[in-house]
Amino acid sequence: MTLLSIGQFAQLVGLSVSALRFYADSGVLLPAQVDQDSGYRYYTPAQIPLGQQVAALRKLDLPLAELNALLSATPPQVTSILERHERRLLEQFEARRQMLLDVGRVLEGQRKLPAVDAQYRPWAAQQTLSVTMSAEAEAFHAAYVHSVAQLREHAQAADLEVTGGDFGLYHAQEYFSGPLQTEVCLPVGRVVAGQGRIRCLQLPAVTVVCALHPGTWHTFSATFGALYLAASQAGHHPDTSYTLSTPNGIELGFFLN
């Protein structure tokens, strides 16, 4: 029988020697043979797939008991264990996100807002299909994409011409503080009756202050803050904020009263 030293096996499966000792002592991944005199541990090539599986599961930060249970679980049991772990990770993420928000509030006023090239332009009157959604920051993108898909399906079913790109309206000034409520809009060529959560919204012509956002959604709040300050200092009264995809990037802005 071909035997691999613990060092050789560690390299082949992607675990450290200390991790292999830990998993052996925990009964998760036992060596095939232990030398009675030296205490050296040896593994067989047949154990490589199991070792690689343990290494992959270890990256998920699973508790030891659940990792061990996964190795012999049926597909429904695997789903149940991973869903439970997903909920636990989301709770941990939310706790840390709240800590970050608390730190941000402490630092408020100590940071300089980013410089933005604030532009003022007319926003034409239009009718849109809209649906209201609410999602936490980590789930926001997926929820927004799903909402846009719903609106496009409704437009197609009603034989409506889509006349522009989708955009989101945010009626609260603070962005990504707790669940974010968004009115997802899709411009269409004519007014139709709503259905279920989908309604027809008519937006009047307004002036907006806007700027292209240079980063990802994680820093939207900084650009929104800088735009709000620039408009306020110019004597305007920013109201509803919006995000709009353009060929040049994401445009952030406010409707002005």
From TrEMBL:
Pfam family, one: MerR
InterPro entries, sorted: DNA-bd_dom_put_sf (IPR009061), MerR-type_HTH_dom (IPR000551), MerR_fam (IPR047057), Reg_factor_effector_dom_sf (IPR011256)
GO MF annotations, alphabetized: DNA binding; DNA-binding transcription factor activity
Keywords on record: DNA-binding
Positions of the HTH merR-type domain: 3-73
Recorded superkingdom: Bacteria
UniProt protein name: DNA-binding transcriptional MerR regulator
Organism, as annotated: Deinococcus radiopugnans ATCC 19172
